[in-house]
Write a structure and sequence with these properties.
By secondary structure, the chain is an alpha+beta fold. Helices cover 31% and strands 23% of the residues. This is ATP-binding protein.
Amino acid sequence: MTTTAAHPVHTLLHDKVVMSERFQVEPLCGAGPPRDNDACRVGAMRRIAATQLRLCGLDALIDEAMLVVSELLTNALVHSGTSEVFLDMAIRKGFLVITVIDGMPGAAKLKRAKEDAESGRGLELVAAVAEENGGTWGTRDAGAETWCRIELPAAEGQS
């Protein structure tokens, strides 16, 4: 695992904001994929998240975090009807906590997608990533906020 001299993993066990971004989106009316501009914003947020994690020396979590960011943001765009999305990534008590707030009540629910379904697996993926990385996921504020916790990797030389 690579760490930077400024932020070795063992110093990141304390609370630290990794990134905090708010952006406007066009509300969707009904089911369907996000609009092209909003889908591009999801990609931009993924790249910003990866860069911020790299700057914190958390390269080992980039793939997992990018997947969670994509799925939570896309879920907010597709299912909430919101016009503004807030993405927060922070280190809290030994975990990377990724939070997406769409401000629209309606709890995200884990559903099993049909085998031939082309979508509907986002929260399944988030749950799997969280579980595989010693974390969990959930919703708060009547579903207006969805979050995922991923355990930070042990510092080199620690077990």
